[in-house]
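The records we work with from here on pair a chain with its fold. Each token is a code from a learned vocabulary of local backbone shapes. A record is reproduced here so that you can trace the correspondence yourselves:

_____
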Amino acid sequence: MSAESWDGMGVRELGRTGLRVTPVGIGLAALGRPAYITLGREEDLGADRSVAAMRARSWAVLDAALAAGVRYFDVARSYGWAEEFLGGWLRERAIAPGAVTVGSKWGYAYVGGWRMDADRHEVKELSAGQLRRQLDETRELLGEHLSLYQIHSATVESGVLDDQDVLAGLRELRASGVSVGLSTTGPRQADTIDRAVELGLFDTVQATWNLLEPSAGPALDRAHRAGLGVIVKEGVANGRLTAHAAPDALARAAREHGLTPDTLALAAVLARPWAGVVLSGAASVEQFHSNLAAVHVAWDPDLDERLAVLAEEPETYWAARGSLTWQ
């Protein structure tokens, strides 16, 4: 780990990639499109979900993150205009390639047409053709800033980790100097992570870990020990671990420590020794600063036992996540 730091955040290398990151990164899943499955968006965003308004909000959050020292930025082809927002911001701020680490993902296409009431907002296709098409699209928007390209929501059941055409495409991309990774989803995240480690191709894994769904923890530890960089998404469980809906045990513990629920929830992620980056999905500058405060929390190990009651069975957690409405 480097001795350098910005605003108290140590700079580290993300696994074996050599990419430089900070403990907190910014994900634009909630800012690149008008609707998403995060609780409380009406309060967080208000009624103006125009492209111009969302671009301005994205840039404000990105500016705040950069000023605070954040050096990892995460987007995806399916996040609406997120790649366009991020690419435009990088050019406008004259940020040189390599000055920050940029990761994107392929496999889902955004089909919501910038409508709140769309029947479908994204469509999944984990094929070699999709990889080629979306890589070209991503490169058009992010250019040389692209540092990491990830399979979006890989699962063992999808067969993508056994698709030789996809794996060959990823090997070719990796040989060109772009790190390759995968994000995981669903109650069998651990199986997907272990399979990815077994393949020896992937440089990073991005997985859901939070106080409600900690089941991937042991597999993420194994991945970390194997040299993969670990990126944690959904650390506040799509808003379920924020002031919008925090369970009583988390709300009480946060109050006792003088923190907000989201700060304490993200501090729990940062306390895991295998966590390389935890993503803030903040929809406003205020939310970002609340998320960022997690880096200054001295984790009390007694909290692990106290908050263990929040953990749900993986099937229960993912069923609840799947029932969240786009808002």
Remarks:
- The first strand starts at residue 5 and ends at 6.
- Confidence is low (pLDDT under 50) at residues 1-7.
- The chain has one domain: 5-322.
